Amino acid sequence: MYQPDMLTQQTILITGGGTGLGRAMAERLAGLGARVGILGRRTEPLTATVEAIQQAGGRAAWASADVRDPEQIAAAIDQLEEELEPFTSLVNNAAGNFLAPSEDLSPKAFDAVVQIVLYGTYNATMDLGRRWIERGDGGQILSIVTTYAWMGSSFVLPSACAKAGVLAMTRSLAVEWATYGIRSNAIAPGPFPTEGAFSRLATPEMLEVGKKAVPVGRFGDPGELADLAAYLLSPMATYVNGECVVIDGGEWLKNGQEFSKYTDMPRAQAKALMQSMKPKKG
Ligand code: HXC
Ligand code: NAP
User: Fold this and answer.
1) Whole-prediction pTM value?
2) HSE-up of residue 190 (Cα within 13 Å, Cβ side)
3) Which CATH number applies to 11-276: 2.40.30.10, 1.10.357.10, 3.40.50.720, 3.40.50.300?
4) Which of 168, 185, 177, 176 is nearest to 229 (CA)?
5) Which of 97, 100, 171, 242 has its CA 20 to 30 A from that of 182?
C-alpha cells in the first residue's frame, strides 16, 4: 500500500541482512526504491539475498564482516558506499542468542552474545554516526530489539542484557544526536518464525505453547515487520525519534497481565466461571 518510490532517497545498511528478518527488510526496502547494503559473516546468505533483490529489479550489494570488529565494519561500509551511495540509514539487526540456564553460562558464552548484540550495534552506529556528523546531512538509525529489552527474560540472560543496552543507546542518541539531524528508533518484535531464532529458542512443542501466548493467536509474518521498518525509515516518520515500536500481537502485555490466563479458556467457560463468582442479588 506504500508508494513504490517511497524510499528512493534512502541508501540503507542492514547488519545481518542475509537471513530472516534482515532479509525480509532488505527485500522490502529495496522494493520501495532504497539502495540496500547488507553485511554478515557468512557469504552464502548474503549473495543469495542480493541476487534475489537484483532479480526483482532492486539495487543491493553485500560485504562480509563481523560486527564485533570495528575495523571490519569500517572496511565493509567503505566498500558498500563505493558500490552504492553514501548510507543515509542504518538498521542494526544482527544478533546472536541461545537458550541456556544463566548459572551454566561460561564467560565466553555471555561475551559472544553481548559482543554481537550490544557492541555490534555500538560499532555500526558509531562508524556511520561519525560519518553522518562529518557530512552534515543527518541520518537514521533503526535497531531491532525484543520485548524483553525492558522486561528481562529467563534463560536468555546475555541477550536480555544486551538488548536493554541497545534500547538505552536508541533513546540516548535520539536526544544527543538530534542536533545533527540523526533520528534513532527501535522495533521490538515478538515471535517471528525465522530459522535463526526458532532453531535456537524453541522446540516444535514449545512453539504450540508459544502461539497460545500471543493474543492474536499466531506468530508474526516477517513482511509485517518489514513494512513497519519501511514506515520508520520513510519521510512520513521524520517526527518519530527515540521511539520503540512493539510488533508482537499483544504478547508481552498478555504475559505481564495477572488474569490473562483466562483468555486461554473458551470464552463461554470463562464467562460462566465469572458469573458463578458474582454475588447473587438480595
Ligand atoms: C550454552 C553456548 C551455546 C548454547 C554457544 N555457547 N552456544 N553456551 N548454550 N546453546 C557458548 C560456546 O560454548 C562458547 O563458550 C561461546 O558460547 C561462544 O561460542 P561460539 O560458537 O564460538 O560463538 P560464535 O561462533 O561467535 O557464535 C555466536 C552464537 C551463535 C551466538 C553462539 O549462536 C550464532 O552465531 N548466532 C547468530 C544467529 C542467532 O543467534 N540468531 C538468533 C537471533 S534470535 P566456551 O566457553 O565453550 O568457549 C533473537 C530473538 C530474540 O535474538 C527474541 C525471540 C522472541
Ligand atoms: P537470524 O536470521 O539468525 O538473524 C541474525 C543475523 O545476524 C544473521 O544474518 C547473522 O548472519 C547475523 N550475525 C550474527 N552474528 C553476527 C556477527 N558477529 N557479525 C555480523 N553479522 C552477524 O535471526 P532473526 O530472527 O532474523 O533475527 C533478526 C533480529 O530480530 C535480531 O536482532 C533478533 O534479536 C531480532 N528478533 C527476532 C525475533 C524472532 O522471533 N525472530 C524476535 C525478537 C527479536 P551470520 O551468522 O552469517 O553472521
Assistant:
1) 0.97
2) 24
3) 3.40.50.720
4) 185
5) 97
Residue 212 half-sphere exposure toward CB, CA atoms < 13 A: 11
Cell, residue 103: 548459572
**Below-50 pLDDT ranges, the chain:** none
Name the catalytic one among 148, 180, 231, 262: 148
User: What are residue 17's phi and psi, to 5 degrees?
Assistant: -85, 5
What is the structure's pLDDT at 77? 98
CA atoms within 13 A on the CB side of 172: 8
Q: What is the dihedral sign for C-alpha 210, 214, 194, 116?
A: negative
Upper half-sphere CA count for residue 267 (Cβ side, 13 Å)? 0
pLDDT at position 258 is: 84
* pLDDT, position 256: 86
Length of the chain: 282
Going by C-alpha positions, the residue among 139, 130, 44 that lies closest to residue 89 is: 139
Sequence ranges of the domains in the chain: 11-276
Taking the centre of ligand 1 as the mean of its atom positions, its distance from the CA of residue 96, in whole angstroms, is 6
